[in-house]
Amino acid sequence: MKYAARTLLLAVVIFSIGMLKPAAAQNPSIQGELLKDWTELKTTMDKIVNEMPDDKFGFKPTPAQQTFAERAMDVTQANVGLLGSLGGKAAKPTIDAKASTKAAAMKAMDDSFDYGTALIKEQTDQTMLQAAPMAPRFLGPSSRARIVYFLIGHTWDIYGQMAVYLRLNGKVPPASQRP
């Protein structure tokens, strides 16, 4: 009898679960997802740039490589240069391409991300899928979304390089730090 009761109870539970309706799933938004990824990347980049001591911003692993500050400014310049191809009303920030101090590089990089945030907020899902009015020649015809994701990929590439710079200076990249 115990076996029959358990089987019946299990059948009722399974039937009840099957009758539950899933909570209304939110429809993903291309614009919303891009904005989330973009703002989270800004936070990640702020953390890694902030981790390098001020006096090490001129560090480069070999003479042929760029300094840590130049790597940060590469992200900044790519952001400002390519984001303009989206079209939009947000004003392009004025940055010092030769910024070499921690404070100056951080400000320029933050300004470039804030510019991207403003431009992404101007878009809708539909306009994100439309061709960018001034797509860079090296990408060819591209949607606005593709340009933003290209910049996200570029920035993650630079993040990986910066992580090596930190480790060569005895620092642990923020994403690898343990509490």
Write the layout of secondary structure elements.
Layout: H1 2-19, H2 30-51, H3 68-83, H4 102-122, H5 125-129, H6 144-168
Helix pairs in contact: 2-4, 2-6, 3-4, 3-6
Question: Describe it for me?
Answer:
The chain is an all-alpha fold and 179 residues long. The chain has one domain (32-54, 66-174): Four Helix Bundle (Hemerythrin (Met), subunit A). The chain is 60% helix and 0% strand. It contains six helices and no strands. The protein has helices spanning 2-19, 30-51, 68-83, 102-122, 125-129, 144-168. α2 runs antiparallel to α4 and α3 packs antiparallel against α6 (144-168). The chain is globular and about 45 Å long.
* DSSP E strands, number: 0
Sequence stretches where pLDDT stays below 50 over 5 or more residues: 7-13
Rg (C-alpha, Å): 23 Å
- Percent strand equals under 5%
The averaged pLDDT comes out at: 89
By CATH, the architecture is named Up-down Bundle
Largest sheet: none
- How far apart are the termini? 53 Å
CATH topology: Four Helix Bundle (Hemerythrin (Met), subunit A)
The structural class is mainly alpha
- Helical content (DSSP H or I, runs of 4+): 55-70%
Query: What sequence of helices (H) and strands (E) makes up the elements?
Result: HHHHHH
Q: Please give the count of helices.
A: 6
Shape: globular
